[in-house]
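Please predict the structure of the following assembly.
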Amino acid sequence: MAKTMLELRGASREFVQGGETVHALRETDFSVQAGEFVAVIGPSGSGKSTFLTIAGGLQSPTDGTVVINDIDTTKLSKKQLSNVRLKHVGFILQASNLVPFLTVEKQLILLNKVAGTKPDKVAIEALLHELGIEKLRHKYPNELSGGERQRVAIAKVLYGNPSVILADEPTASLDTTKAYDVVQLLARETRERGKATIMVTHDERLITYCDKVYEMHDGVLMLRPRKSVATLPPA
Amino acid sequence: MGDVVVAVGYNEDMFLAINELMKERVRFVLIVLVIALVSYLTFFLTALAYGLATSYTQGIDKWQASGILLQKDANDNIARSLLHKTDYEKVTGTDAALLGVPSATIERDAKKDVALFGIEQASYLQPNITEGRAVRTDTEVVASDALKKIGLRLGDVFSFQGGETKYMVVGFSNRATFQAAPIVYMNLSEWRAAASELSGMTAMRDATTVSAVVTKNDMGALAYPTDVMNWRTIRDFSFKLPGYNAQVLTFSTMIIFLIVIASFVLAIFMYILTLQKKPVFGVLKAEGVPNRYIARSVKGQIVILSLLGMAIGLVLTLVTGAALADKVPFLVNPLFYLAIVVLFLLGAAIGGVASVWAVTKIDPVEAIG
């Protein structure tokens, strides 16, 4: 059986707003294995973002534990948590998380600079080629199309070689063809490289490529029965 | 140039800093320009202030004396000070030298007011000779090389305006100005005659009168008639020179304020740029890039921009200084410049704290939510 890369055990998150306790995330048990591509769908305000920030080690749950690649993050300091994110978690965000003043190639090299390691020229070359963006290496993000930007974002995440990939509405700014394209790519890389990928989306069509689909409603995360996934038309 | 940029760009900490500078060139060139202009003004004013202050005192500073004795009633004004032999004879303690200082006017190509220093031939007040030789007879003088600008040459024979006596220039001395006026050195005995001839001060005819006694030793080794004389250190005496204190104070106030303003401007620029980049930094922090790394990048930019701006300002200053050397008392003191650079960097660093603080306050959760 594949290794569990991310696990939430009874994790919940609540906060007080205007004197009322808001349960952003109810007690949740959740896990993703290596090579698994999971979708979380739900309306806005359902707690998807809270779920993602807790799964990604951006904030700690009020209760319960989060284990990322066998590291229990519950008792970690902010600094240690930041280090866990740097080494084990990759983010692909809606607006694409590229630094506006770095060229495509340097987006990847930045990871080396922060970690104090030497850039792996061979790996960069292979990644750029694999994602079909080798011609864009000297371009800045503002010179790229939405689809190209997300490809670069994926390349950047894969270059960091994380255990867990969290994609937050990665196709929000793309047309249908490009959106399928990007998700397909993400699914393929997840399986080939044995990553645990969670994609948060509100686009039902994209879940075709996912191994499991969770639904989020009012802070409650539920696995959608396998059957309903299978009935969706292929892309 | 490309190679250099790449070499610098691959430095671990400055990776973000340098790459942003290269990408947003226009923005940063403008910032550097502002810093360059302000530091240009700062450096230039400093050179002017130092040049002017030096031209006030270099003629007396080069004695490397400890102090000066003046007539008590002269209110520290050497032009009004008269010391009689009966009084200065009582000054004990070695290395005291006599000096007389009135002023006169020389006319060559142009008119120039000069300070007339009468000194004993053997005393340590004798000027260094940069050209020609020292004074041997009463009708010979050594002049400040600043007088070459009005056409005074070695071997010239001249008389002061309003006087009959002819003097010959036998030597030149550099750094020989007092209260911004070039100094003409002559024998003490002749000085008395010249002073009385020019200013009509009859008391000067007394063959023993002097304006001041310069002392080499410090106060401890010195005894003098305190009822008629005051002893001042050379530094105190300098600050009592008419206008000197006011001018030094005015200039230094301007310079300090310029440094503060320039540091503030830079700090505000950087703070705004940091706030603008909040979303970018937020994402970086979400990805696990430590505060330290981002803060170092911001600080690095501050240092690079400051140094670049100041370097341009310095070059402009030196070019202007060279162009105006004959017209203004422009004098560079590397020590002052170093102090300005350090102060400015310090100010920028203090201002940069705001930016660093802004970076640490960014909540990475917001980058996702």
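The two ends of chain B are 42 Å apart (CA to CA). DSSP finds eleven helices and twelve strands in chain B.
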